[in-house]
Design goal:
It is built from 16 helices and no strands. The chain is mainly α. The protein is globular. The relative contact order is 0.07.
Length: 273
Amino acid sequence: MNKRFRRTLAWIGVACLSFSAPALSDDYSEAVTAWQSGDFKIALEKFLPLANSGGIVAQTMVGHMYEYGQGIAEDKTEAVKWYRLAAEQGDANAHLLMGVMYYEGQGLMENDVEVVKWLRLSAEQGNAIAQGNLGVIYDQGQGVPEDDVEAVKWYRLAAEQGDALAQANLGRKYARGEGVPENRLEAVKWLRLSAEQGDKLGQFRLGFMYANGEGVPSNYVKAYSWWSLAAAQGHEDAQGYKGSIAEEMTREQIAEAKQLSARCYEANYKGCD
């Protein structure tokens, strides 16, 4: 399976465990406090009775702790058991996590059809991460026929919720005219939104737009700057492209680009142009 999609999913186990209930009970609050402070054994002791009583957040947390070996020996099969209990109660985050486990073959066999099933259940409840990843599934034809229009649909739903990776992928679809009419201005709009959130893929692709003058005036300084920022976050291709474009730039332009990328990083990627 596509490794980029795997990396996208890999951090969900922590990212989706936000405690957004209007008011948590004292037992929940104590369990959450213990978990956040790294006292995992105490957290597990407090979460388990709540999970056994049907608490969705507690079930998801117990699954998470089994998955990552927090306060107990790592056990992916047991993690799936608890995620499934929460998912069967209709929880969007648990649906998402079931999709993750099926995708990675953690605690059960890899199964593209099950990945699609669980991610769709989560996405249809408005979960932006699931929506973005469902877009990837349709984009690449994993467990479903490849469908650019359907991919754009899910990317857009996630992008409109502020998901940076979905914004980068939606920008790519507009740049290539896949599933939507080609529109370089719209591509730049979405890529910039992604890049300004610090997404290295959005930064890399925005650099391309500046290098080629697509949707923006050609500007090697800005292309070098965005590629520098993406490369600093580990985007290997960005490093190579930065080196290539440097061969066509003056020393003064390279110095300006380095200053621009430094200012952009200090400003948390805002106002970089």
